[in-house]
Amino acid sequence: MAGSADVTDTDLNERSADVIVVGAGPAGSATAYHLAKSGLDVLLLEKTAFPREKVCGDGLTPRATKQLVSMGIDISEEAGWLRNKGLRIIAGGTRLQLDWPELASFPDYGLVRRRDDFDEQLARAAQKAGARLHERCNVGAPVLDERTGRITGVEARVGEEKTPVTFHAPLVVAADGNSTRLSLAMGLHRREDRPMGVAVRTYFTSPRHDDDYLESWLELWDRRGAEDRLLPGYGWVFGMGDGTSNVGLGILNSSSAFKELDWREVLKAWCASMPEDWGYTPENMTGPIRGAALPMAFNRQPHYTKGLLLVGDAGGLVNPFNGEGIAYAMESGHIAADVIVQAHARQTPAGRELALQRYPKVLKDTYGGYYSLGRAFVKLIGNPRVMKLATERGLTHPMLMRFTLKLLANLTDPTGGDAMDRVINGLSKVAPRS
Q1: Which of 63, 68, 91, 284 could be disulfide-bonded to 327 (CB atoms 3.0-4.6 Å)?
Q2: Can you tell me whether residue 137 is helix, strand or coil?
Q3: C-alpha to C-alpha distances, 79 to 54, 73, 76, 112, 362, nearest whole angstrom
Q4: What is the gyration radius of the CA atoms in the chain, in angstroms?
Q5: Is 395 strand, coil or helix?
Q6: pTM exceeds cut of 0.90
Q7: Tens digits of residue pLDDT in 307-325
């Protein structure tokens, strides 16, 4: 098996490749899969060993489902995937159930799968396609060409013994998440003018485990003080189909409450307010409450510089409208792979560089306008009163909410769509692509 190769071998070929991908989450595995399928030699370096835990809602929209299909993943129920029909929205005492839209570009269903298993599925698909996966490979500093400043490899510590190893490649893809030490070492810092979110979640044994709709609570109340307080975020309940529910909160940094509150305690209090027969009580909790950052709307740029490409959370590709990251992680990996494959076929260094410079342009053409709309949306709903008013008025208009679902989940047909698609696509085209 490729993953069991001895990376301490003195044979340089074992440590060299056409491309190094750092991080085997959805972004890195998708990148490695598409590169390997195109015939390139890829090293996929993962700091932990599978299976491993990640903080996530575990709910996948049709946008993410499409990417799984493109990677040849078996998404049948027999293979352990739970399908969902759409989104149930709860706010202001109103409950609205919306099916995913029927589109030519995306399937009409989403999926649910635990992240500790989901990521391994993608990594094994990349491995099967030909990528050389090394687990327990903790990447540290980039290796730089002293003359040009280009990245030409990475330093890593491998295995239980933390053996120092140097890997070499003319291109490196940073898929190492929000912390992205590799990007920071290359001088790429987070943009403070872009929104950041936090997700906290846990699992409960619950009779609601087989719900076939993802559930989103758009009013998040903190009822622990003398007065109830409406917070800038949303809650979710996703049935896992295995006897448990994933229950969590997504919070934006557009409010003073973002830093001052202990969000794990807020989650506990929110769960305590749920109906008792749902089982969201401490004794039914099957694991600890975990939290993670959600880097949104291109919060780290440029997405290509000096031989380094950023994909997924490393490049801040989380959707600011709904906090979805997996779909954009996989899509950006696919886009990066396409660009790299074309660059690899160029005859000269100048030609290859010209092709690689296209990557950030494609990202901005694809997501820039939509993310700009999302940033405006984040500023707006950062005021809980605005959020409350919007949900109270909006939920009474199912047509408006179907439009909102398409907008928030970024589910439209680019050509030949309905009037809603044309409005959303038009807004995205005229918005700044920064």
Answers
A1: 63
A2: strand
A3: 21, 10, 5, 12, 34
A4: 22
A5: coil
A6: yes
A7: 999 999 999 999 998 889 9
